[in-house]
Amino acid sequence: MKLSDFQKTVQCRFESCLKKVVRHVVKDYQQGLKRRKDKEIPFCELPEIVVEKLAVWDEYETDYTIFNVCGNDIRICDDELAEALKHLSERNRENLLMYYFLEMSDTEIAKRQNISRSGVFQNRHNSLELMKKILKEKR
């Protein structure tokens, strides 16, 4: 069946209009992508400090060992370190935990443990040597 001139004209106009619509839809889509690209940052490109703020870390009691020193609970996440600390006497363990985790000075620790400041230093030094020896044996 042959199309009349009028039908051809209508068909050509329709196709022309359809092409314009498709061109504008594609153009709008590309502009939208460009706007999003300008305003958005891929998650992999975020600085680590921002990711840390967004992250939520679950903590379970099995993930750490708790030592109570001076009324403070000190959580040790490293199992090997916790085991090495358990091998120390209570006084030496408290000495290390107060110094490194509670950031107490030798003088403050000496007052709490009723020993001299040099005794605190010597106990800590000996405790660290013993822990080093324990940790080497386990490896």
Automatic annotation (TrEMBL):
<dbReference type="InterPro" id="IPR013249">
    <property type="entry name" value="RNA_pol_sigma70_r4_t2"/>
</dbReference>
<dbReference type="GO" id="GO:0016987">
    <property type="term" value="F:sigma factor activity"/>
</dbReference>
<dbReference type="GO" id="GO:0006352">
    <property type="term" value="P:DNA-templated transcription initiation"/>
</dbReference>
<feature type="domain" description="RNA polymerase sigma factor 70 region 4 type 2">
    <location>
        <begin position="79"/>
        <end position="128"/>
    </location>
</feature>
<dbReference type="GO" id="GO:0003677">
    <property type="term" value="F:DNA binding"/>
</dbReference>
<protein>
    <submittedName>
        <fullName>RNA polymerase sigma factor</fullName>
    </submittedName>
</protein>
<dbReference type="Pfam" id="PF08281">
    <property type="entry name" value="Sigma70_r4_2"/>
</dbReference>
<dbReference type="InterPro" id="IPR036388">
    <property type="entry name" value="WH-like_DNA-bd_sf"/>
</dbReference>
<dbReference type="InterPro" id="IPR013324">
    <property type="entry name" value="RNA_pol_sigma_r3/r4-like"/>
</dbReference>
